[in-house]
Predict the structure.
Amino acid sequence: MRVVLYTERPELWDRIPEVFAGVVPEYNLHGDISDGFWNRLFDDFGDHQFLLYDEENDDILGAGRSLPRLWDGTTEDLGTGLDASIRDAFAAHDAGTKATALCALGVEVAPVHQGKNLSRALLNQMITMARADGLDHLIVPVRPIWKHRYPLIPIERYAFWTRADGEPFDPWIRTQVRCGGTVTSAMEKSCRISGTVGEWESWTRMEYPESGDYVFPESLNTLRVDREQDLAVYWEPAVWITYDLRGSAPEGPSPR
């Protein structure tokens, strides 16, 4: 496999919806912030969007999306998560301000290739890209993959759960830590997803007969439904994982 940047083979990204179908729940494809920035992500930061590609078999194995942003190295300056990172990154870009960290937006492995250690390869590629840009940190607002099993547990507690052997409880957080990341903080309101009641019923395939808070399949938090306003709002939580790149390069499989 090799790394292919969006700027090298943009047509490959037309296959992403089919190749990665089901990797994230449907509702995750409708974040409020996406409408304003999604196309700009590829126009302004095309060299930071990449695929793991099997050229011999014309097969897309994994995808990584990221963008450079400002971070002063403190927990407070990480901000509230995904939405704020995207807004701040584009504001800095438009102002001509030099970034100091690379922020991961997505690290995804195609369903047919999961279980092959490719998530580590994707993370290592982001580290390589950050180093090449002269950035000291990779920061990742992680969507914990087992949080949906415990939607009522505050993310501030879940983020720091550990197994009997001391490693992180959540498999995706555990992978990040094994790659050299540090669990730094947790955010209750990382990504806002809003829509009409009908849209949410379509996305989640369940009904919301009255106003109130609901747990739905694959939710990490509760959904607030207001039938009078025909509005449903969900805040996706996340965990900040940070990588200090000022030391030696991490061990692990190289994607190149």
Notes: Confidence is low (pLDDT under 50) at residues 250-256.
